[in-house]
Amino acid sequence: MCVPAGFSPAEERRWIAVMVERIRTKEQRRQPSDEQLLQRARDLSRRYLDGRAAPTTVRWSAAQQSRWGSCTPSDGTIRLSERLRGTPSWVLDYVIVHELAHLLIGNHGDDFWELVGRYPRSERARGFLDGLDYAANSPGSTEE
Q1: 3-state SS class at 86
Q2: How many CB atoms lie under 10 A from the CB of residue 94?
Q3: Closest by alpha carbon to 38, among 80, 74, 68, 86?
Q4: Residue 120 has pLDDT above 80, yes or no
Q5: Which of 30, 70, 116, 122 is surrounded by the most beta carbons within 10 Å?
Q6: What tens digit of pLDDT does each residue of 47-105 get?
């Protein structure tokens, strides 16, 4: 972003605050709502898991700091880390499929990975998430 050369320091700060808020608002509009996440999960279940996984809610969670997602099979709830906001849709879909598979299978055994592997971009998405983890946790990273 460029700031006109004639701006005073106070005008520059005000302009930057306005532009940051515009970007935030635009990004928030792009992110799916919890209801849209639920519809997406139901569609992914139909497409890749024969409709067997039946989530009751899917929502963003600020509490997910070490995991990309989690679920509670007993009530069908899925929580997705807000760290996923802004990732490509195919990465978000992978995490949803992963959690949907956990609604059916509680562990990470072969049967579980067979279900997750039905999503065609599973390996690519896992690599993407590994890269995000590495970038966030490598020496010199600015994230905490």
Answers
A1: coil
A2: 27
A3: 80
A4: yes
A5: 116
A6: 999 999 999 999 999 998 889 999 999 999 999 999 999 999 999 999 999 999 999 99
Residues 55, 70 contacting (CB under 8 angstroms): no
Separation between Cα atoms, residue 60 and residue 78, nearest integer Å: 9
**111: which residues sit within 8 A by CB, 6+ positions away?**
105
Q: Please name the residue that has the structure tokens 């930057």.
A: 16
Name the token pair of 68: 């990309």
Beta strands in the chain (DSSP E): 57-61, 69-72, 77-81
User: What sign does the dihedral 93-29-84-102 (CA atoms) show?
Assistant: negative
Distance CA 69, CA 97 (A): 10
Question: Residue 142 pLDDT > 70, yes or no?
Answer: no
Torsion of CA 129, 85, 136, 24, to 10 degrees: 150
